[in-house]
Amino acid sequence: MALDFIFILKAIIIGIVEGITEFIPVSSTGHMIIVGDLIGFNGTEFTKMFEIVIQLGAILAIVVLYWNKIWTMIKSFFKFEKKGIKFWLVIVVGTIPALILGVLFNDMIDKYLFSSKTVAIGFIVGGILLIVAENSFRKKARRARSVKDIDEISYGQAIQVGLFQCLAMWPGMSRSASTIIGGWISGLNTAVAAEFSFFLAIPIMMGASALKMIKFNYATLTSTQVVALVAGFVVAFIVALIVVDGFIAFLKKKPMRVFAVYRLFAGLILIALILAKLIK
Q1: HAMAP family recorded for this chain (predicted)?
Q2: How far apart are CA 228 and CA 195, in angstroms?
Q3: Mean per-residue pLDDT for 105-118?
């Protein structure tokens, strides 16, 4: 069977979108749904699986960029050192809420929340929450003693951030935004909240991808889809490698308001496009 190069090109475009948006607080899933609608790449079981699995490519970029930290903590854990044990337990604690809700409600989320309408709502609500949280908690953290290193995160803070991460199950809310908001509220500074978000993404996205791949009917998989999946994965990885360092540098100097304003405008424009029936 001949390859459909237009379909593969669309997959590459979605991979670029994923790599750019996975770690900034604007919702990668929401953007993939919107761009997918615009270029005709949505609406099938394969594209739903694709949009989850290629996020592993972006997550792999985190593993590469933070490999020294990860490897150090792996060695510390197996040496039964307190620092390494606590680090991985904090990751586990922060992952549990989303893991439980994801297993329980995965099918309902797929059925009812993967649409441009729900993304528009998520954009706007998430943007408002970013503004409120930044004004209320980020500034307070600057005056008070905030957690300035990921090794200082407590189990209580981890569970708080993990609970906020559950908001990201609504496409358009953004896992990055949700966890950073949770981090601010629990007393983390912005850079630490973002880095903790990166580490939490590793088990969450591995679990979500595994669940999608287990449920997918491989009898329907075509050679074009295989190439598209590989291409999207690789592109998401490369683009995320470029984006992450710049995002962390930005967070250390600038407020998040620019992302909130973008989300509000994007949400309103999306609603206008839906009302005009230009997208579904």
Answers
A1: Undec_diphosphatase
A2: 30
A3: 86
